[in-house]
Amino acid sequence: MQQSQSKTNPTKNQKIIPFVPEGDFYFVRGVKAFQRRKFDAATKWLKIAIGKNPKDPVFKCQLSVVYTEIGAYHEANQLLTDVLMNAKDVYVDCYYLLANNYAHLGLMDDARKYANQYLKEDPEGDFVEEAKDLLELISFEESEEEENAEWDLEDEDELLIYQETAFYYVESRQWHKALPILEQLLESFPQHQQAKHEYAQALFFSGSKQQAMDIEEENLALNDHSLYSHANLALFYFLDDQEEAYEKHIRALLNVYPMHEQQKLMVACTLARTGHLDEAFRRFRSLKKGDMDSQLSYFRWYSYTLHITGNHEKAVALWGKGQAKHPILNMENAPWE
């Protein structure tokens, strides 16, 4: 007689334990998304992580870094301020992150205050060099603004006319018209730094390449932190196939993140024009779109960057917007033509 075998369910009477992710699970996903530069996903996961553990300061600091990367500086500062006010331990790095954000917002007094606070609290910290560079950049930009503010009030109208006219001709690449205007401007205002850089550009693209390079090399000898000189020389040497000289100046741009929108645009355009397209794309994305409407170079070189990096539809849309705002662009070929 065959013995019957009972059939048993191995999961019977066993409790199923559901997987409930903790904050760390979402935090790790957020960090990975950030590293892949998927900022929307990073923001989503980090917000969930904070919801799971609202008292964890590390989660908030990481989200503040994402906000900084996408230009949401106020939101980043709210998180950092909350960490400094409520965390049991002092997260000293918050002082540097606040300084960096305030600098991007143009609030230089606050930027200086927090950079100095960071150096005071942690003189051997991870961001010491960055904080010192930031303080140096603030001092340099303030000195440049003082130089350009030396004109008497009665000269301001004349200066404004020169600036606007020269800016139009430089942006529209009408170099033969830009040169005499810039020469007149510099004759009346010989210390005007921006005009010197635009004059060098107009010379280079009018065929006086060596003279343009010499002017910027002299400027750089007087001020080795001049972003405009590094940008012009990087472009000049790139176009003139002087690779070693080009590499020196492009490295100076790759390692700096300016605070003013005009400087940020200048760096982004230079990177685009010299083949650093992925980095140029990141720099263009960080610009405040509302400040760019008057800048032909923004539409010209951001469209080009978008097209080359595989965002053709966005490139077409941006180019069309530029043509609507600046009819002179209708006379140029689109970047992909």
From TrEMBL:
It holds the Pfam family TPR_16. Transmembrane segments: none annotated. This is Tetratricopeptide repeat protein. It comes from Tigheibacillus halophilus.
